[in-house]
Amino acid sequence: xxxxxxxxxxxxxxxFTGYEIIGRVPSxxxxxxxxxxxxxxxxxxxxxxxxxxxxxxxxxxxxxxxGVLLGAxxxxxxxxxxxxxxxxxxxxx
Length: 93
Prior knowledge:
With 93 residues, the chain is mainly alpha-helical. The chain starts with a helix and ends in a 5-residue tail after the last helix. 4% of the residues are buried.
């Protein structure tokens, strides 16, 4: 089982790595990067579902539900925005 210190260390390492990777991406790659981030949000939804299904108290259930709701909304919204951006590059007939 993860202790709080190890979980915090993993979170900080992931945040730093994500910041470094995103900071080095040129703006021309925004659309492919957004598609990749939508995939990550899908993983967030799976993690939130796992947390929700293993919740034992009402507070944990509420937090899990909110996590699923926000993750799913973020993923769906990201796909909508990506689709609209890709429509701008299609030739008009």
